[in-house]
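Hi P.,

Sorry for the delay on this. The queue was packed all week, but I finally got your sequence through. Input first:
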Amino acid sequence: MLHFNVILFGSAIFTLCESAAIFEKVNKKCSIRDDECMQGIYRIMLQDIALNGVPELNLPRIDPLSLKNREFVALGMVKVTMKEGEAKGFKDCYATSYKSDFDNHRIAIDFVCDRFEIEGDYKIESTPALLALSGGIDIHGEGKGGVVVENVHLSFNFATEFKKLDDGEIHVLMKPEDSSYDFEVKGKVTVHADNVLVGKQEISSVVVNIFNENWKFLTNTFGKSVVDQAMELFFKESQVFFEKYPAKHWVTDDLSSYVS
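Then the structure:
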């Protein structure tokens, strides 16, 4: 479920930055070399989208965020679907650091999210890979479940390029292939769920206890592979927003010398 949080949070960052209405609301521009100014803009914008959304882009508020039929595959073995639920905590995310090096085409942004909560009706199913490995033992179930993730630190290191597009304006574009990210849960992860079955045997308490007692190992071992899926889609979707609005909406500098 950290997959849900990262992809939604990442999409929010760039939807905000490329929304004309947000630029008007913030009513502020920065030099690309003024890191403190840019960090302030990100802080204002993230708060705004969490509470108000971006109507012009049909993006609803994201705190709380309604979840319906969101799914991911955990460890390549189990498919988890949040049939209907709610996520909270995006309004408590904030930029703690913004560092730009446009001579080398890099932007580094650090965020902290105090607490994410997801709660709702879930469905869990074994994948064919798990069934093959387990000799047909089927893990499944439908019920109520949730997760709390405390004190998440996200670090993005974006590779950028400046290009003049067909609109005649200079845009700051992202190069996903040269960008990177890291994350760390500095608090803890706690899950709860009912009605998890192996065959007909109820094993909810066993599964929940194993995860809650070993969440750090499981997150460190398998978390990145899950978040990688989110980041791949995040980079792809965010580029659409970068291409929509030119840099002049938020940058005071003449960027002509940076155009490749």
